[in-house]
Write a structure and sequence with these properties.
Layout (H helix, E strand, L loop, with lengths): L1 H5 L3 H20 L1 H13 L1 H20 L3 H24 L2 H13 L2 E3 L5 E2 L7 H9 L6 E3 L3 E5 L2 E10 L4 H6 L2 E8 L12 E6 L11 H8 L2 H6 E10 L5 E11 L5 E11 L5 H10 L3 E3 L18 H9 L19 E2 L12 E6 L10 E10 L9 E6 L6 E5 L13 H8 L8 E13 L2 E13 L7 E2 L5 E6 L5 E4 L7 H17 L11 H54 L1
Keywords: Membrane, Transmembrane, Transmembrane helix
Length: about 575
């Protein structure tokens, strides 16, 4: 058809050329709009090719066949095939099953035989931080979803104060001009003064058109990457020069048969207002500097950092259900099949980004931020902890897991924690309050390494279930995953948590375990000096008392001799008088 139109004359040729120029221009400038369609084709390329091939062959056979019966047979076969494909692939989730199995085969899995310790425990859960941040901004501002990252050697919640998506005009003309950077280890998160940092980003998550983070990153991808990469979570952190940057995690799709997602590196967007040159660059080739996973080790601020998309780590953790073999998760097996517990009431779902210390685990794992998962058996009534999974948050190609089930530890999992907390405080109004985000707390207490879950009690709005009321001094509970006892701890004094746990549980530990090392409080320098002074005073007092005793003894001896002399003198005087 196009060939016939082209051959009609010069006018038609000119129209065809103009049409293709316009088409190519639209494809170039609007690739961020149709890129999701390219990713969809990439995800299901094998299924799409299979369906189109069978459909093409079936329709060709249908057209060539003169027999009515054969035509009906072809239509029946195609109908049955596509019906089975839909039922097995989507209803029974066979496609997801195979995708997860491909993730499992691609993983660099390392089993560890000793749990790492937790450090720099975060007091507030993510939803509390998000609610408190929104309480601190005006009507025309929104707060991006908080992420736990490392800033200047400390773990911080960072989020952008960006133009609200509620009012379209702000997203067109305004920049992102401030960032919240709040300590994760304090019970008193402050969203003002030094924690509210002035920094301008002309590209942001809530901005419109070419200034939108997603659009700018997609425009930066080359044609090959358009089919294989997609932007995911956005983080705010400092680079090696101390300047704030926007780091966008990329998901890379691998494989032909049942493609699966993996970590694809990051796109780094620098801060600053953009001029006309930047505008032209933005609408043509996008903005950002791509750093591949292999190159990230050359950037100090990206190592031991949190840059991994949670969608990727969730699928990696879930793929451990194939540890016992390809068929183990099928309904007639499921001896070791596991799942990621579902978080209720719109709470923050796993993974929980946690700071771990692997120093005493005899592995090469670094100390820093990890995505932690507590996997449980697939049954809804089963809430035991089967695996603890530690995925490096910086995208390092490794996955560490600890097998609780094979060690027969009998630990309770995350799903069992809310009811235990509610049972321990029956006087609470649990209709408006709920315990949330049970992250791991692993410490050496009383002679052995013990695993607890640290949970926070939050108040949820009845009108908006996603709004959590975060108190500056939240109620915190530590639950022993082995003994199932709940210890309510002081959020203001993290240094006393281990002692509080010991005071409540040491008798149970001694009864069950026999020998038990008593908790020894680590003394401060002042306390140590005071103890030395008290000892000196005691010794001094003892010396003084000894001198007094010696004096008493000496005086007593002298008095005794004087008495004997007086007796002898009286005898002598008596003899003299008789004479």
């Amino acid at each position: 058809m196009l060939k016939n139109y082209w051959s009609k004359g010069a006018k038609q040729k000119k129209r065809v050329i103009i049409f293709f120029i316009v088409l190519l221009t639209l494809l170039f400038f609007f690739r961020d709009d149709y890129q999701p369609a390219l990713i969809f084709v990439r995800k299901f390329i094998f299924i799409i090719l299979l369906c189109f091939s069978l459909l093409f062959l079936g329709l060709r056979g249908f057209r060539k066949s003169a027999s009515v019966g054969k035509r009906i047979g072809i239509l029946f076969f195609l109908s049955v095939f596509f019906g089975i494909l839909y039922y097995v692939g989507w209803n029974l989730k066979f496609y997801d099953y195979m995708k997860t199995y491909n993730v499992f085969n691609d993983l660099n899995k390392i089993e560890i035989h000793e749990l790492p310790l937790t450090q720099n425990e975060r007091i507030q859960p993510l939803r509390n931080i998000f609610s408190m941040a929104n309480e601190s901004v005006g009507e025309t501002k929104d707060v991006s979803l908080p992420h736990l990252v490392r800033v200047d050697g400390n773990n911080q919640w960072t989020m952008a104060i960006q133009p609200t998506e509620k009012y379209y005009w702000q997203g067109l003309k305004d920049n992102t001009e401030e960032i919240f950077s709040v300590s994760s280890t304090t019970p008193f998160p402050r969203f003002s003064s030094e924690n509210r940092i002035s920094v301008t980003f002309s590209i942001g998550e809530s901005l419109k058109f070419s200034r939108n983070t997603y659009n700018a990153v997609v425009q930066r991808l080359n044609p090959w990457m358009l089919f294989n990469y997609e932007p995911s979570d956005t983080f705010y952190m400092k680079n090696d020069k101390g300047a704030w940057v926007e780091v966008v995690s990329l998901i890379k799709w691998k494989g032909f048969f049942f493609p699966y997602p993996s970590f694809g590196g990051v796109m780094v967007i620098e801060n600053g207002e953009h001029d006309i040159k930047d505008y032209l660059e933005r609408i043509t080739i996008g903005k950002g500097t791509y750093i591949s996973p292999d190159e990230m080790k050359n950037y100090g601020y990206l190592t031991k950092q949190n840059t991994l998309a949670e969608n990727v780590s969730q699928l990696q953790a879930e793929s451990l259900k194939f540890l016992a073999g390809f068929s183990d998760p099928l309904p007639w097996n499921m001896e070791s099949a596991v799942k990621i517990p579902t978080a209720p009431k719109d709470q923050n779902a796993q993974p929980y980004v946690t700071d771990f210390d692997f120093s005493d685990t005899k592995t090469e794992a670094f100390n820093g931020l990890y995505h932690w998962f507590g996997l449980e058996p697939v049954g809804n009534e089963r809430t035991s902890l089967s695996y603890s999974v530690f995925i490096p948050a910086d995208g390092t190609d490794k996955l560490y897991y600890y097998d609780h089930a094979s060690k027969k530890q009998g630990y309770a999992g995350v799903s069992a924690m809310p009811l235990k907390v509610k049972e321990s405080k029956k006087e609470y109004d649990w209709n408006s309050n709920t315990p949330v985000e049970f992250r791991p707390y692993i410490k050496n207490i009383a002679g052995r390494k013990r695993m607890f879950f640290l949970g926070t009690v939050s108040t949820i709005s009845s009108d908006n279930p996603e709004q959590f009321d975060g108190s500056a001094t939240p109620d915190l509970a530590l639950i022993d995953s082995e003994y199932r006892d709940v210890v309510w701890i002081n959020a203001k004094k993290p240094s006393t948590w281990n002692e509080e746990v010991y005071n409540q549980l040491n008798e149970a530990w001694k009864t069950s375990e026999g020998a038990n090392l008593y908790f020894e409080k680590q003394k401060t320098i002042l306390e140590q000096n005071k103890q030395v002074l008290d000892s000196i005073k005691l010794i001094s007092n003892l010396d003084k008392n000894q001198q007094i005793l010696d004096s008493i003894k000496l005086i007593s001896a002298q008095d005794k001799k004087r008495t004997e002399i007086e007796k002898l003198q009286r005898k002598i005087d008596s003899i003299k008088n008789n004479q």
